[in-house]
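Appendix B, Record 12. Input sequence as logged:
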Amino acid sequence: MPTYLVLLTLFAALLHASWNTLLRGGTDRLWSMTIMCATIALTCIVVAPFLPLPAYASWKYALLSAVLHVGYNLSLVRSYQSGDLGQTYPIARGASPLMVTLAAALFAGEKMAVNALAGIGLISGGILLLALQRRRLALPGLTYSLVTGVFIAAYSVVDGIGVRIAGNAIAYTVWMSALWGALMPALYIGLRGAKSLLRWRPDVLPAAAGGLVSLLAYGIIIYAMATAPMGAVSALRETSVLFAALLGYLFLGETLTLRKVLACTVIATGTVIIG
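Logged structural output:
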């Protein structure tokens, strides 16, 4: 991968960890996620008129990705109800790069160099090492964390294919995100009612800020996947667990152990190999 794409993707990883920290620290995570999505939708609606429409063939991918993102949102919120950021987040993110690499080979015909595959393997292994608890992955939110990883892999490959035929990476990101951002509030209203969504809460501004950060972070990832291998981009994005471990330690009172430091070293090694 070109150096500028590596650096952009690592910056997106930092942004991604930041909004996950905001979500994990919230009192009502489903509501916070919905406010984030509503902010994303409103922002994209404002920006969309200034961009060209994506190619017609890419719209089915944008719609499918929007649906998968809603599933991801629900699964992520559920996993955070039963686990720390420092464990549920690494499991969800660590499972996805290898799945993305395999799916990209099957559905997009991508071929990976040996060094890139080694880097992806190291990053995934280091991420899963972060999630270990007493030498095992047995924790209450394990199932939801793994399901979240499947959703991540699915929408990553769908967007990787969609953006390559869209003709404009920014336009594809904006329209897909507008669809995704509109679906989540509609689902929330169906579950809890409009009154619950519109009621003012102290967390509304952090949640809205998290939505903007999330949009920028994933927009960078889609831009990178337009030209770079999906598996490599996915693996570099998941280095966000390094930032999540640090942010969880600094702001959420979570522990930073020797095992976590070792795992971070393994992940950093994989990043250097890919870069």
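The chain is about 80% helix and 0% strand.
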